[in-house]
Amino acid sequence: DVQMTQSPSYLAASPGESVSISCKASKSINTYLAWYQEKPGKTNKLLIYSGSTLQSGTPSRFSGSGSGTDFTLTIRSLEPEDFAVYYCQQHNEYPLTFGSGTKLEIK
Amino acid sequence: QVKLQQSGAELVKPGASVKLSCKTSGYTFSTSYMSWFKQIPGQSIEWIGMIYAGDGGTGYNQKFKGKATLTVDTSSSTAYMDLSSLTTEDSAVYFCARLLRGLVVMDAWGQGASVTVSS
Fold it and tell me: Which residues of chain B neighbour A96 with C-beta distances below 8 Å?
């Protein structure tokens, strides 16, 4: 199985700042990497897939980059609603596997 | 709009089985794929398997073969997951999620159903 390693596990930032979250795969997954947002009381939200393609409705302040084994989710100019848990998921091969999550908290 | 409504929390005894449901609306269920996931609170998400509603064809994570059985009822646009021979290690929140057409990513999720296995 492809192991997905996310870092950091916790990240504190202030509204208006920019942050980046890293996701590393144990082997090449080409560009088949998705990012999800998890918030209490809401269903999980697909933000980005295929490395850098924004899902419909995802604000443009979110961006994804990377290929092979190293990927990054960047959020520019944080809004209050962005404070959440973020997961990466590889969609290159079965079984689908997820990172351990990054909790983005308000500083 | 697209909605996946999961059944409620379950408290079951070790060795028992449980059947979770995921009732969908707002899209054409019969030509879609559905995946199921397991998440222990505070931990990451595990993929259990997926099913194509058109013909009931399934694919499972090897880890969950024999534990989970996925089915669909296209007449009610509902997906089901049976979990058998439950142990305390099966205590978790289980999610259903629709696959984005053509890709193995999930663009709509259910709210989750908690399963607690306890005597």
Answer: 35, 47, 61, 104
| Residues above pLDDT 90, as percent of chain A | 100
Per-residue pLDDT tens digits for B78-108: 999 999 999 999 999 999 999 998 889 999 9
* pLDDT of the residue at B101: 85
Tell me which residue in B45, B100, B109 faces A49 most closely, judged by beta carbons: B100
Q: Do B47 and A95 touch (CB under 8 A)?
A: yes
Angle at B88 between CA B83 and CA B94, to 5 degrees: 45
At residue B72, the pLDDT reads: 98
Cα-Cα-Cα-Cα dihedral of B103, B105, B106, B112, to 10°? 140
- Report which DSSP code applies to B100: P
What mean pLDDT do residues B23-49 have?
Answer: 96
CA distance A74 to A56: 17
CB A72 within 8 A of CB A94: no
Q: What is the pLDDT of residue A96?
A: 98
Residue B11's H or E segment, with its range, is strand B10-12
Measured between beta carbons, the chain A residues lying within 8 angstroms of B61 are 94-96
Is the CB of residue A31 less than 8 Å away from at least one CB of chain B?
no
B111 touches chain A (CB under 8 A): yes
